[in-house]
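During the no-cost extension, the postdoctoral fellow (Dr. R.K.) reprocessed legacy sequence entries with the updated structure-token encoder. One reprocessed record is reproduced below for audit purposes.
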Amino acid sequence: MARVLIVGAGLTGSLCAALLRKEVTGPLYLAVWDKAGDSGGRMITTSSPHNPQCTADLGAQYITRTPHYAKQHQIFYDELLTVGILTPLAVPIEGMSVNEGDCNFVAPQGVSSITKHYLKKSGAEVHFRRCVTQINLRNNKWEVSKETGYPESFDLVVLTMPAPQILQLQGDIVNLMSECQRQQLESVSYSSRYALGLFYDAGTKIDVPWGGKYITSNPCIRFVSIDNKKRHIESSEIGPSLVIHTTVPFGMKFLEHSEEDVQELIFQQLENILPGLPHPVAIKCHKWRHSQI
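Re-encoded structure tokens follow.
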């Protein structure tokens, strides 16, 4: 039986797993490892510690289908829309650039529901908090080492993590990688930013006419969304959630600062955008070191 390991449980890794399962006709052991505690990657959805139904998308905010992608990826959009994982974005996003023929979608259950859907379809054995450290070639097999536990052998390894993390791997992979491949990976650059998720008690009102808003006049904050409103989840039993994305310059400047210091700076600027905002019952701060290419 062929043994395949996919490293990374974001959109690329989860979809790759589902497609492999679909295309391979023979016996296949398929594993997906991720160093995080859940699937999603840059499509992560987090929840309030006080109410797991109160969630917030800290990464991707909505899915834009361009006319080109509508043709190239129609089968994927049709499937996700049919099963209700995606629904049309129906609330205003102020400042959003809209090109002719574009369609925007949100994930009512959180954007990580997309990756969870594909992982479930793949039937893969999924393990979280498994950080790959070395990849060696042993007897025509790939021996993969992780931070804890024994190495495991696979016939094929697919790496879907950010390029800098691939370059940090040790073992034979260092010498097996061509200079051209290394240069290509080294040439990939990422923006960095922070995301803040704020969770509120049921019954809290945040009275704004939009579901999301791009901010153009603030040095710290680039985007704000009333996340439950954006995803069409407004309930008397579930409190609202709010997501803030910082600007890239702010993210780069404070990349190595403590979360506490960064939160305080974001809250100071948020008061200028949404004055009088109620105090949240829970806060989640996420550093996107590798945000967008």
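The first strand starts at residue 2 and ends at 7. The chain has a mean pLDDT of 95. The remaining legacy entries will be reprocessed before the final report is submitted.
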